[in-house]
Amino acid sequence: xxxxxxxxxxxxxxxxxxxxxVSGCADPRYCDVGKPCSDPAYPYCDxxxxxxxxxxxxxxxxxxxxxxxQRDGGDGPVASDGGDAGGDDAGDAGCTSPAHWCSGGGCVxxxxxxxxxxxxxxxxxxxxxxxxxxxxCSFACDASxxxxxxxxxxxxxxxxxxxxxxxxGGDRPDCSGHAGKCVCNGTSCSGTTPVCDSNTxxxxxxxxxxxxxxxxxxxxxxxxxxDQIIYLDKNNASCTDSGGTAGEPGTPFCxxxxxxxxxxxxxxxxxxxxxxYSFTADTYVTNGTVVIIGSDPATTELVQTKNNRAVLKLxxxxxxxxxxxxxxxxxxxxxxxxxxxxxxxAVGTLTVRRCVLQGNVLRGID
Length: 366
Prior knowledge:
There is one protein chain. This protein is mostly beta strands. It has two helices and 26 strands. A five-stranded parallel β-sheet has the order 15-16-19-22-25, with helices on one face. It has a four-stranded parallel β-sheet with strand order 17-20-23-26, with no helix packed on it. Strands 18-21-24 form a three-stranded parallel β-sheet, with no helix packed on it. β9 and β10 form a beta hairpin. It is rod-shaped and about 130 Å long.
């Protein structure tokens, strides 16, 4: 009699599972986080099915009502991969922040070469460098260049000057160039710093009369205003020794004696332009103050032609400064270049700079 043997189904199930496992491991399209797709025909890994696909899996990002069961794992309420919704979200489930998924590129840094969801390669104009804020591309200008609409231009203009692209203004309104700095110009300096120094680019006080347009530099470093100066210029066709405007820049005096008299009347400065000024007159300074400025001893001469007279005589408390002049020609008993003839106990001062006193019968200064 035949007996029926009952076989247990468990060994058969185990065998089938083992066969399936072996088949899965040998599947050339199998992929996971640690095993990316290598076949160019199937470059996209479906991390739900663990199979390489020819096209990117559908997006199940945060905008989907049910996220995790869809192919990419998304970053919705059931997500576990940390995806970033929108665009081509598939596959980035396996990327570690700050990397993100780029179609055809896998997990890549979110940088200027793979910027944002579009994985754009950022660019920049000449003298600039690309930037990525994690979402979109932009660019920034290199050091010592500034953004001028869509280009990076050198910082060589007053609004953007030098290595730091400084803004020029005040008494330094100009820019000396791309590698330079903000500097002064011929009209930006005033007050006690009226001179634009070409070496430093800064305004400074005058150090010579020739640095002032008026022809006179005062001790504080400021330029004396023209209306505080009497001018003597025999070579000016408009020179005159009479009239209310005599001694002004446009109508200077022609001869020395009347020019000296007017300067002693209040102006205090007498600027003598080049020339030889001969006179036969008493040229006295009595209790007065005056600064007489010549252009240069070689070109600016005061010549006395009257007997027994000094070229210039100072009486009592007179304060006189002579610069850039030659004083000559005095003869007779008082034939000095400068005679300090004090007749009282009052004390005056005489200052002489860059002057020549010669050809006088007696002393140069007595």
